[in-house]
Design a protein that fits this description.
- By secondary structure, the chain is α/β, with parallel strands linked by helices.
- It folds into 2 domains: 4-77, Arc Repressor Mutant, subunit A, CATH 1.10.10.10; 108-274, Rossmann fold.
- The chain is built from 14 helices and 5 strands.
- Strand 3, helix 12 and strand 4 (210-215) form a beta-alpha-beta unit.
- The termini are far apart.
Amino acid sequence: MLTIREKIESLVSSFTASERKISNVILSDYPFAGLNTIHELADTSGVSAPSITRFINKLNCYGYQAFQQALIAELKESHHSPVELKLTEMPASSKSFLHDYSVRVAKQAQSISNTISQQQFDSVCAFIEDPSCNIFLLGGRVTDSIASLFAIHLRQIRDRIYHLSSNPEIWPDDVLRMRKRDLVILFDFRRYQTNLTDLAQVISSRRKSTIVAVTDRWMSPLSRYADHVLCIPTEVGTAWDSQVSAVTLIEAMIVQVSEKNWDGTRKRIHQWDDVRLTPPVGSSEKP
């Protein structure tokens, strides 16, 4: 079932001028803007209450109350734990579990391009390719392992890569290092972490760095402070959300960024290997 955000984005080309105003207000602070009264939303959007009603009907929500109930249901779903997801799972066949599960995650990975446009992908990669740009990465309880993996590969491609500590007491040191032209990539999936949202707010207001939020279809609250929001599929019908799409996304970025300047990447890898305490086999070859 599509979220309200997904419905809005699928219909945006058919919206009237008034409907675009309404959609912009809702998406600018999603889903909370839609939880205001119809008159508050009308005042903020600069349109009439009947225009709101027509907009809601276009989303196949029959009445403003049904629209808000759908948003509230999304909020609840965004906080589901594996225990709650277990109640609605679609178990794979026990006789061919590995095959069935691998088919599910393959379909999930293939659908990334349906939620992230090539333009979005290229825009973020362009930042990563810029050698003058510092790049800071951090994730949540589970997703920080993905941020770490991304940082490990990026360090072999270019310098100025900083993986933030999991200890919030150390964050001020990194935040004070951030400049307006720098990039901050934050990973946060459902059962979102409040401290990541707080960090994004501080960076957005104090440092003005470009923030990329990598999140799921329910969208982490930190997305409201992000300049780029990359929503990826995570559901595979089990009690556990999958991280395969997140890994696929960062691997695609690693390949694109490294191949855009392969001479620079090759030189960096040789320099990296040259100073390793235990250089890998073949590292003595000259670039």
